[in-house]
Write a structure and sequence with these properties.
789 residues; Serine Threonine Protein Phosphatase 5, Tetratricopeptide repeat; 66% helix; Initiation_fac_eIF4g_MI
């Protein structure tokens, strides 16, 4: 006969309810009378005897571990006893351990729903019992025991048990947070489930004004933030929500939350913490809060002044996980958090044995167990040697089958890039929440990027820099910091430079300037190699307007930091010359002139001295070495040169004709004026003037047109002519420079004299003016002399 007591298995006080006042003989008889399962009448006497034996052995059985499901029976049942009936529902029913083992022994097929249901109830009891026993001293032992159970299948039970235990005893919140931190490193999906349930619970309790449960939930969330399980953005969102519409209860919740995670927020987000405390200061001075609440705010300011020494973020003995090994969940209050309550309910698993075998392999890697230890731990409930051998054979067969199944499995690729989007969002928020470059680099390094994600980090830093209104030196220092830390980041930034130059035509003007200044900073500080400039080819065909603006901003930034002299020395360095062939092309005079004109137009003409010298010494490009030279192409080139020469000569002739026409027009005007004057004079003078005007008109008659240009010269004469033209251009440029210098000196001298003229100078000027005014005849005399000449 099956006797049971109705109790709650999942509650925190299961053991106390198990030992109730039902030990009295009177209660035993009544329970036997009214709580019995229908069985055949022939087995009633034996069942009564069994119940008496179970009651006598109950104290011994309670000390043993409850809930294990041995795969083989420990001993053969008596021949006179039949298999007890399997209850359709075991949830909420208490079963004596001996009766439970007897029931388990009758079920050998693991694929049946009855066996899985009993195993589920056993797993529930084990998880709740171990979670309720946890404290600081036995934390490591409880964690190892929990990993021995299949917490992947019972992750809903584990999450519910931890949250209920923390709500019942908030004093041990830091211990439960340390437990979750260890589990989260091995099974991040369990940590994410706990975080989602806590955020959902906070929303529900906050809307219902359930102060006690909301206080316990916020305390648990604060300790998860301290353990780096949850991002600090959630903590700031909770504080903003609580202080948005302040009341006595909401301010009290915010104060309790700040005491728990204030030290952590002061380290990772000091600006956010300062804004929260400024809000509390305004509430203290302006709002009409209760005296008790105001006193709590004053105490909180005193705690902050003491740097939260009374409330450390992680107490001693609970820092079990390294920051680099922790997995931080990026979940906010605005995200949709599904608590997944169906994970707490039993569900039939068709691949039960396969999942159990997979978890055994995971457990081996986590606990460093050997196959012998696993066989010994699984055979604790069996006594015979034959059963042990059979179990070992079964385990070997299961392992072989599992290897075959693993080979058949295919890798799953996430095409939605959800993880990539989450990573980029985390990087962006970390950059925006940091004050300095060193702080930001420290936070980003703690993210534990996987191999291959360095490129995403570098690209995200560049994108954040490009989206600013003006360039901020913060991003350049951040990129320089990463390049100095690891060589992988140097290669990533060089690859980003090349990719960015290929798509530079898609960027706006502001983004062009920011990106160019960012890479200019990296080049100035030698964070990346100057070899990245080999991807730039400065010719008219290979560049666009956007790429030329990009190159202009880049070199102006380099010249601003290095100076023109140092930049020229760097560009003329023989060890780096091969990287700058595209910037200063020498394959074609046209490309060389384009490069010279470009750098001269942006004010950096001094960088092209070597290229100018190259054009003087090598006016024509050296033809490539070929076995056969096509004659037609040479003839065509010569014809093109002749056409250019003819075109130039014709243009010069047209200019000369235009000059002669303008000169003739001026002379005609002068003759007309002279004729008017001579009419008023004497006839003699008019005749003389007429003769002079006729002579002048005859002299001003247009010259006959110039003969046609000579035939095109040969190649040798053409080279001599180019050299002569080049020398003339150089002489002209030198004369212009000398004239400019003389003009500037003369202007400076005149300004100096105007500012402070000496007394002697004044006397000379006065004497010169008197002399000019007193001697008009002398001036006429000079005029006549000049006319004679």
């Amino acid at each position: 006969m099956l006797k049971s007591e109705v109790t709650r298995v999942s509650g925190p006080s299961t053991s106390s309810r198990r030992r109730s006042s039902s030990n009295s003989p009177l209660y035993e008889k009544s329970s036997k009378r009214y709580r019995r399962t229908p069985t055949p009448s022939s087995e009633s006497e034996s069942d009564y005897d069994d119940d008496d034996k179970y009651e006598q052995k109950r104290n011994k059985d309670d000390d043993e571990e409850e809930g294990e499901v041995p795969s083989k029976p420990t001993s053969n049942p008596p021949s006179t006893q039949t298999t007890p009936a399997v209850p359709l529902r075991t949830g909420g029913l208490y079963m004596p351990p001996a009766k439970l083992r007897l029931l388990q022994a009758s079920l050998t097929d693991k694929s049946t729903p009855e066996y899985q249901r009993i195993a589920w109830e056993a797993l529930k009891k084990t998880i709740n019992g171990r979670v309720n026993k946890i404290n600081t001293s036995n934390l490591a032992l409880i964690i190892r025991e929990l990993f021995k159970d299949n917490i992947v299948r019972g992750r809903g039970l584990l999450a519910r048990g931890i949250i209920q235990a923390q709500t019942a005893s908030p004093f041990y919140t830091s211990v439960y947070a340390a437990l979750v931190s260890v589990i989260n490193t091995k099974f991040p999906q369990i940590g994410e489930l706990i975080v989602k349930r806590l955020i959902s619970s906070f929303r529900r309790t906050y809307m219902r004004n359930d102060k006690s449960n909301c206080l316990a939930t916020t305390k648990f969330i604060a300790h998860l933030v301290n353990q780096n399980i949850l991002h600090e953005i959630v903590a700031l969102q909770i504080l903003v929500l609580l202080l948005e519409k302040p009341s006595d209860d909401s301010v009290e919740l915010a104060i309790g939350f700040l005491k728990e995670c204030g030290q952590k927020l002061s380290q990772v987000s000091p600006r956010g913490l300062d804004s929260v405390f400024s809000t509390l200061r305004n509430l203290l001075h302006e709002s009409s809060l209760d005296k008790r609440t105001q006193y709590m705010i004053e105490v909180l300011f005193a705690v902050r002044k003491d740097q939260f020494k009374a409330n450390p973020s992680i107490p001693s003995g609970l820092d079990l996980v390294d920051e680099n090994d922790q997995y931080t969940h990026m979940i906010t209050l605005d995200d949709e958090c599904q608590p997944e309550p169906m994970l707490d309910v039993f569900k039939y698993d068709e691949a039960y044995e396969e999942n159990e075998r997979k978890y055994k392999e995971i457990r081996k890697t986590i606990l460093d167990e050997s196959s012998d230890d696993e066989d010994e731990s699984s055979s604790d409930a069996s006594d015979g040697d034959e059963d042990n051998d059979k179990k070992k054979d079964d385990v070997d067969e299961e392992e072989q089958e599992g290897d075959q199944v693993e080979k058949k499995q295919d890798t799953i690729i996430d095409q939605t890039e959800t993880n990539l989007v989450t990573l980029r969002r985390t990087i962006y928020l970390t950059i925006q929440s940091s004050i300095g470059a060193e702080e930001c680099a420290h936070k980003l390094l703690k993210m534990n990027l996987r191999p291959g994600q360095e490129m995403e980090l570098c690209q995200m830093i560049l994108d954040s820099c490009a989206q600013q209104r003006t360039y901020e030196r913060f991003f350049g220092l951040l990129g320089q910091r990463f390049c100095l830390l690891k060589k992988e980041y140097v290669e990533c930034f060089e690859k980003v430079f090349q990719d960015q130059y290929e798509i530079v035509h898609r960027l706006e003007n502001v983004k062009l300037r920011n990106v160019a200044k960012f890479f200019g900073h990296l080049l100035v500080t030698d964070a990346i190699s100057w070899g990245v400039l080999r991807c730039i080819r400065l010719t008219e065909e290979d560049t666009t307007s956007s790429s030329r603006v990009y190159i202009k901003n880049l070199f102006l930034e380099l010249a601003e930091f290095l100076g023109l002299t140092k930049l020229n020395n760097r560009l003329t360095d023989p060890t780096l010359a091969e990287y700058f062939d595209g910037l200063f092309p020498r394959d074609n005079p046209k490309n060389a002139r384009f490069s010279i004109n470009f750098f001269t137009s942006i004010g950096l003409g001094g960088l092209t001295d070597d290229l100018r010298e190259f054009l003087r010494t090598n006016p024509t490009p050296t033809p490539p070495v070929q076995t056969t030279i096509p004659i037609k192409t040479e003839i065509k080139d010569e014809e093109d040169d002749y056409k250019d020469h003819d075109r130039i000569q014709a243009r010069v002739h047209e200019l000369q004709i235009e000059q002669q026409k303008t000169k003739k027009q001026k002379e005609d005007k002068n003759t007309k004026k002279n004729k008017k004057k001579t009419k008023q004079r004497s006839p003699s003078t008019s005749s003389a003037s007429s003769t002079s005007s006729s002579s002048s008109s005859s002299s001003a008659s247009p010259s006959p047109p110039r003969p046609p240009p000579p035939p095109p010269p040969s190649s040798s004469s053409r080279t001599h002519r180019d050299e002569r033209d080049r020398r003339n251009e150089n002489n002209k440029s030198e004369r212009r420079q000398q004239d400019r210098r003389n003009e500037t000196k003369r202007d400076e001298r005149q300004q100096r004299d105007r500012r402070s003229p000496s007394p002697d100078r004044r006397k000379e000027e006065r004497h010169h003016r008197e002399k000019r005014s007193s001697s008009p005849d002398r001036r006429h005399h000079h005029y006549h002399k000049s006319s004679k000449h």
